[in-house]
Amino acid sequence: MGTLTILLKHSSTYKSLTKCTNIFLLFPLSKKQHSIYSLHFHQRPLCHGCSLSMNGCRKGHSREPVGTIKTQTLEPVATTSMALYSLKMAISKMKSEPQFRSSSGIVRLQVSIEEEEVEAIDWLHSQNHLLLPRCFFSGREHNSFDSNGRSLVSIAGVGSAVFFCQPHPFSYWDWVSIRRFLSESCPLIRAYGAIRFDAKAKLSVEWLPFGSFYFMIPQVEFNELEGGSMLTTTMAWDNTISWSWEDAINALQDTLSKVSASIVRFPKQAPPTLILSSHDIPSKIDWDIAVNRALEMIKKNNSLLTKVESENAYQFLLQPPNAPAFIGNTPEQLFHRKWLHITSEALAGTRARGVSIALDRQIELDLLTSPKDDIEFTIVRDTIRRKLEGVCEKVVIKPKKMIRKLPRIQHLFAQLASRLRSEEDEFEILSSLHPSPAVCGFPTEEAQLLIAKTEVFDRGMYGGPVGWFGGGESEFAVGIRSALVEKDHGALIYAGTGIVEGSNPYLEWDELELKTSQFTKLLKLDLPLRQKVDCK
Fold first, then answer.
1. pLDDT tens digits for range 155-175
2. Closest CA relative to residue 512, chosen from 184, 288, 236, 277
3. Which Gene Ontology cellular component terms are annotated (predicted)?
4. 443 preceded by a cis bond (ω within 30 of 0)
């Protein structure tokens, strides 16, 4: 998919339209797909046992924090298989000698792996036989730590101790439903998930399993740390929604019995994938019409546009039961919260990198002194600032404007920092900053109306918040540079382009082709294992 983005100067309006590329793939008989992006292209049969978990957003549940929130650390072991055995034994003992009498709770058991070096994505690959919900998240910066001070690189999870999903828009009370299972005393108990770009838009069939939002606290989780790793289990229960402690521990034991203790280390290259067909929605002709319509709007409003690109990226995968996988490699931070401290970012004004040092500096100077780019950047930065000021104390912008250089591109950048008045204001931050001006527009309602009128498909979670809630910390990215991987060997690919006065629809289409080609190149395995892909 591609995104058409418009920023109207006088009315401070910013709009985004999207193109969808539907790709059908043919795989060889070998099942050795070797990166997060090709992890789930094989067809998975229905998971009839996936109902064995509780929906924490069910009606009738208590809104108070659960009665028990605890993390137990077991003795370190040498290997992943030993860690799995240790967890199984601990849970069996816990079942025979019940420790928790509260009517609701969540308990995490964790064991460090000291000798075997395993990456989270390899562990997740090794669980491909499991027909369970799964997730993967790798932060752009490794600023979370375990109890031993080791930074958390990435997590992979299968099964859900508790999930949160509803068809209605994500609300304050849904946030409360998640928060009641989290605590500052157990910072690595986290709910990973995503929220739809526009919850008011009609759900298309491919996005139905995700609802308007989908979050999960994994049952079994692998934590890749700098200098080590951990294997963990989590069980959650709440009698008010008919999911007892016995239900939770039985479901966990069932999942653990299916988890593979063997880690399959894949070679650098996987068998080649043949792209059978590629279909664009809208077609190139319809795209030209949409762009020309946008250009007419720009002309009437004396408009300008900001495009946002970056490469320093978050990687994610989210797959509910019986659903396609939503995967991505997005550079754009929505917000990061550590206790009461909040940061967000503004990016705008894109230029290519120069082929020489001298040319690169010349391009940098051109971007820094461009009146047009300065206006675009200022509008994006000030929009985020105003949203933060509505919820936070004084907002500090530092740097106010600088060049962020990436391997292929460079653009204007500012970081915004502030302080929440209360952790209860976290929901207000999320609902205020989403949808971000980079993928929707401002005013939001007007931009979303244009999107709904122009686009002929469902964006789903594309452009929405993707990340996690924790007890004392939360982090969300914007779900761009992403794809929805279908069960029947296909994928819907999302990317973006920007439209300004004087834009050429044909050239913008070529830019979309270039951006989506980053995913198709990966599917053809032109890139080495785990190389991050810039597909914006």
1. 999 999 999 999 999 999 999
2. 288
3. plastid
4. yes
